[in-house]
Amino acid sequence: MPETAPCPLQQSPLFAAALARMAASPLWYALPGGPVLAVTRTVPVLGRIALISRPGPALPQTLRRALGVGALIVNAETQAQGAALARAGFVRLATGREVAELSLAGTPENWLARMDGKWRNRLRHAQRQGLELRAAPLPPDRNHWLFHREAAQQAARGYRNLPPALIAAMAAAEPGALTLFTARAEGRSIAAMLFARHGSSASYLIGWSDAAGRATSAHNLLFWTAMDQLRAIGVQVIDLGSCDAQSAPGLARFKLGSGSRARRLGGTWVEVGALTPLHVGLRTVR
Fold first, then answer.
1. d(Cα 72, Cα 267) in Å, to the nearest integer?
2. Are the C-beta atoms of 59 and 52 separated by less than 8 Å?
């Protein structure tokens, strides 16, 4: 499907092509407001189910039946979309998480003005460290060194990310869509950031650094470099992903300090065939 306005990675042709390479079942479904990407699978008891993550257009109440599935799970893009799903009888499974989004509108001077003062200071600090910066397409290799180092980082910090197989599938589906920015010092990599470009949007996928990378504020310089290079190829907005000040305060400060804005998504909702009329009735009598 063609991309025009910025859209989430989960609703992009890049993501659909990667899922297809992994033998998943992505399905584009045409709606009046534009197409939505659904992923279907078969599970015990419920049978065939569909997942739609962060759709742009409004979803009609007949969508589950139109998709021919026993259950439809929607990760709503906005609070308004979540409220509409509730009115349609969907049951909420989880509240919406906050994400950080960075606009690349304006000039680099405008970007600096939107940044937190401490973030700018770390950027200037990094610019004085003599770091060697590299930017290159990520090869479609699930055993790439970055995945191994981030796996250790995930274990140490207690978080989860997209699986390497899915990221490698995106790299294979559209060579050049994923760019790895690396900072090196004394002949070795000390920090890296990985971005996926999809239409006029980009998504921040992986950030890794060792002690030397943190000491030199390498991520600030890598991110600044990525902003400039992504904007040069038509990116308007960078989706920085989850922004949770409770579970990951340092990462949230980094993302918001860059000039991004936090926005709460609409939550996760499910509609399960025969249960929906009962749920609507209960909501009516309460």
1. 14
2. yes
> pLDDT band for position 1 (50/70/90)?
very low
Q: Which residues pair with 101 in a beta bridge?
A: 239, 261
The secondary structure of 174-208, three-state, reads: CCCCEEEEEEEECCEEEEEEEEEEECCEEEEEEEE
* Six-digit token string for 243: 């922004």
Residue 47's closest CA among 69, 16, 77? 69
Alpha helices in the chain (DSSP H): 13-21, 63-67, 79-87, 108-114, 117-127, 145-157, 164-173, 211-215, 218-232, 249-257, 275-285
The pLDDT tens digits for 134-157 are 999 999 999 999 999 999 999 999
In angstroms, rounded to a whole number, what is the distance separating the alpha carbons of residues 186 and 201?
A: 34
The three-point CA angle 82-241-88 to 5° equals 10
Residues 6+ apart with CB under 8 A from 246: none
- Write down the pLDDT at residue 281: 39
User: Token pair of 203, please?
Assistant: 């998504």
As a whole number of angstroms, the distance between CA 154 and CA 233 comes to: 31
- With both helix axes pointing from N to C terminus, report the angle between 164-173 and 145-157 in degrees, rounded to the nearest 10: 150
Q: What is the token pair recorded at 55?
A: 């759709």
Q: What is the DSSP letter of 31?
A: -
